[in-house]
Amino acid sequence: MNQNTFISLINPVKDKMYRLALRLLISKESAEDATQEVFLKLWNGNEKIKDYANVEAFAMTVTRNYCLDQLRSKQNSNLKMVHNNYESGETSIHDHLEAIDELDQVSQIINNLPEQQKIIFQLRDVEQYEYEEIAEITKMNETAIRVALSRARKKIREELLKKHNYGIK
Amino acid sequence: MELNKLEFLLKKYEEGNSSLEEENQLRTYFASEEIPIHLRSYKMIFAYSSNEKNRIYPGKIKLASKKAQFIFIGIAASILLAIGIFGWQNNSRKEIPQYNVGSIEDPHEAYQKTKEALQLVAQVFNAGREDLEYLNEFNKTKNKFIKNQ
Q1: pLDDT digit string, tens, across residues A7-22
Q2: Complex ipTM tops 0.85
Q3: Range of A152's domain?
């Protein structure tokens, strides 16, 4: 496989890989680095890629595993990374408390979900994969996926209702 | 969408039983403006997930860039090494002038000088060894135990 073939194979997946990395690692820099690392991994082992019928699922699995490894190694070295995308740095604390963007709230809630649920929410609700595809990526069975997904969805809504009084009829 | 059907789909969604098609129906519905107030949390969730799908990988696909760097560093290092060795050999090839290297012609004097130098070395060695005297204490203690057995 030459570089061009490889790039044309990986191009349609690269954003999905980045988004999954971002979901898990939270910081944009780490996510970009991780995605780049995974490209290299896939490229250096690119003989193997042909064996896998579904390149996309394989690439997503490698991304997922790589990010989980990164998280483990950070925990092991006791370096709890403070995940900040320093973009809202200009807004004062006052502004921040007053009007956190609604989407940021959802994002914060998802960040507090267990990793497994984050991954599955990302794959299903954002990337809109079929259950079989999620099963192939995560190596979980479909029932377990549905259970985790249901928990994640319920938890997100529950937390949102806690923050607002939207639930009051 | 009628409220009945909507509630039904939302229930399926929460249970993880909705199909992609049904989820898309929900997404389209919640993208419209008039949402009953008690369903606003769903609107946020669907807006969030649609919004997230628009993120794109900001970098380029770089392949083997690191490898190339290492190769470059390797080449640079070997060139430096080659220059270094070449230069060193050239330097060392210069003849050392035979006069003025401190050699002594008279055998007796040479013998004396050598002895002095060796003495000096021996002194330093002995000074160093004195610091190790306390190691004998270990042997003494060890012997006590061995005898007692």
Answers
A1: 888 899 999 999 999 9
A2: no
A3: 92-169
